[in-house]
């Protein structure tokens, strides 16, 4: 999302400035802080991209559901769409957890992805 991307860009720039000042002054702590800020910024930008992709995927699925006719087909399509959304969101959480070494998010992402697969399969029956 735009907010995540903006925060990420800010942290990336802030990190580059800190790292540069640390290099000029020989301050290793400031250099390290700058590198960490850049990593944080890159992770935030990636998270924004993942959220954008998930939102686009969800919209595509919703459009497909809206194009369908018939009660049983619509119900199945909605369950499939719901499962696909959870699967995409779970994958996004898992990847963000990987990028930030956040094991809690990794675990939550794996669970949500697995639940989404089950929902999607039940909608395809």
Shape: elongated
Largest sheet: none
Q: Determine Rg (CA atoms, Å).
A: 20 Å
Question: What is the straight-line distance between the termini?
Answer: 34 Å
Q: Could you tell me the strand content as a percent range?
A: under 5%
Q: Can you give the helix content as a percent range?
A: over 70%
Structural class: mainly alpha
Oligomer: single chain
| Contiguous uncertain segments of 5+ residues | none
Q: What is the number of strand segments? A: 0
Succession of helices and strands: HHHH
Number of domains: 1
Please count the helical segments. 4
| Average pLDDT, all residues | 82
Molecular structure report:
With 125 residues, the protein is mainly α. The chain has one domain (2-123). It is built from 4 helices and no strands. The protein has helices at residues 2-25, 28-67, 71-100, 103-123. Helix 1 packs antiparallel against helix 2, helix 2 packs antiparallel against helix 3 and helix 3 (71-100) runs antiparallel to helix 4. It is elongated and about 65 Å long. The two termini are 34 Å apart. The relative contact order is 0.12. The mean pLDDT is 82.
């Amino acid at each position: 999302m735009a907010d995540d991307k903006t925060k990420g860009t800010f942290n990336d720039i802030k990190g580059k400035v800190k790292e540069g000042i640390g290099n000029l002054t020989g301050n290793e702590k400031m250099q390290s802080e700058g590198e960490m800020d850049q990593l944080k910024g890159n992770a935030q930008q990636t998270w924004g991209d993942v959220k954008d992709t998930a939102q686009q995927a969800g919209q595509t699925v919703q459009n497909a559901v809206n194009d369908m006719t018939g009660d049983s087909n619509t119900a199945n399509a909605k369950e499939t769409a719901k499962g696909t959304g959870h699967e995409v969101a779970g994958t996004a959480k898992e990847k963000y957890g990987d990028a930030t070494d956040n094991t809690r998010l990794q675990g939550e992402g794996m669970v949500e992805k697995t639940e989404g697969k089950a929902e999607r399969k039940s909608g395809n029956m």
